[in-house]
Amino acid sequence: xxxxxxARALKKPRLDDEVRFLRSWIEKPLHMGAVMPSGKLLARTMxxxxxxxxxxxxxxxxxxxxxxxxALVERGVDQKRLVLVEYNPGFCALxxxxxxxxxxxxxxxxxxxxxxxxxxxxxxxxxxxxLPLVTxxxxxxxxxxxxxxxxxxxxxPFVQFTYAVVPPIPKSLPGVSTEASERIWMNLPPAxxxxxxxx
Length: 199
Description:
It is built from 6 helices and 7 strands, in the order ααβαβαβαβαβββ. By secondary structure, it is α/β, with parallel strands linked by helices. It has a single domain, classed as 3-Layer(aba) Sandwich (Rossmann fold), CATH 3.40.50.150. A 7-stranded mixed beta sheet has the order 3-2-1-4-5-7-6, with helices on both faces. It holds the Pfam family RrnaAD.
C-alpha cells in the first residue's frame, strides 16, 4: 500500500539528507563523522545534555544536514542561541535555509579557537559535537577539547558521540569529569554519547 502524500513529504527531507551525506562521504570520507546523518534517538540523547533554560550560546560542531540541530530545537533550544560550525559550504547553505535564526559559521572546528574568536557574545552553555574524532590523532582531539573548554562556561558540557567502543577522549584527563550514555543500539551503527565537563 503506498504511503499517503503527507507521509512521503515527511520522508523526503530525510532521504535527501542521506543522499547529501553519502555524496560528501564518498568525496571526503575522513571529513565526515558518518556515512548517514545521526539517528533521532542518538540526536535526542545528545540534546538531552543541553540546558534549555539558559540564554547562553550553544555551539554545535559539524552539524552536517542538521539532524542534531533539529533535536536541539525540538528540545526547546531557541534557534537564536545556536552557533553552527560547519566546514562544508553546501551544508552551510542548507543550515542557513533550515535554521535562519541560527548563526552558521563556515570554518574548521578542529581550529576552534580561531573559528570562534569573534563569534561568541558570551561563554557557551554547551558544545555539541558530531565530529569524527576517532579518525583524528589524539593531540588533535585534546586540542579540540581544550579549545572547547575555553569557549564554555564553567561546568558546561562538551557532548560528543562515537561509534567506537572506547571513549573518543580519554576519561582520565586531569580536572575533567566524564559520563557516558548507555549504548544506543537503535542507531546504525550503534553509538554512545560521552559528556566531558571541566571541574
